[in-house]
Specification:
By secondary structure, this protein is mostly helical. It has 4 helices and no strands.
């Protein structure tokens, strides 16, 4: 299970970084995101949720991280990807900024969580 958690952790970092980069590209070009980006963003968010679920399964099985900050980084990354669903404004450009920022935050926090795990 630890190996799966590590592999999914790398996937979370890569997919969220890609979603943030593509989102920044759309923001920079002042264009509406295409359907492919929306699927990438959904996959990025789902990967964070899956990673948290695997981590909770490991905790229930008795595995513990050496550094307790690992749990904080994981929880904050999860909160970051969920926050735009609650707080993003309805304007499309501002909404895209929120989701892009959340993907960037999730990628950065996931890197830190990976290093402390």
């Amino acid at each position: 299970m630890v190996g799966l958690h590590s592999v999914v952790g790398i996937l979370v970092i890569a997919v969220n970084a890609a979603a943030a980069a593509v989102g920044l590209y759309f923001l920079w070009r002042k264009r509406s995101p295409r359907r492919g980006y929306l699927h990438l963003l959904a996959f990025a968010q789902t990967s964070v949720i899956a990673q948290a679920a695997i981590g909770l399964l490991m905790l229930s099985g008795g595995s513990r991280s050496v550094d307790r900050l690992h749990y904080v980084y994981g929880a904050v990354a999860l909160a970051a990807i969920l926050s735009p669903w609650l707080y993003a404004p309805p304007a499309p450009a501002r909404r895209l900024l929120w989701f892009t920022g959340a993907a960037l935050a999730a990628a950065a926090l996931s890197v830190r969580a990976y290093l402390t795990g």
